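seq:
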Amino acid sequence: QVQLVESGGGLVQPGDSLRLSCADSGGPFDNYAMGWFRQAPGKDRAFVAVISWSGRSIYYADSVKGRFTISRDNAKNTVYLQMNSLKPEDTAVYYCARHIRYRRTTSSSGDFGSWGQGTQVTVSS
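struct:
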């Protein structure tokens, strides 16, 4: 059933940091880009960051540039999202996902075919 499992979310204060992890046990990993998305109540799911299959190409949403870092460890089938200087507007359910296309890197949620269940991140003072 669940093949992508996120962890690391929680309740933090503005300025704090969190590190999210996503373990992929559903099959192919090395040859696919991995992405992070988030969804706040009443809003559509939004792009956060994506990393190519090799880790050599990385793209971030403007709202998180300079604060978030995406990385991957193919030997562990795991992708990470280091979140620093968190703001209240970062509050959302965070999802990781595997790109549907072989060795392609895009930021559209429709290009990702396997999704985790999400982990809640709440930033509040």
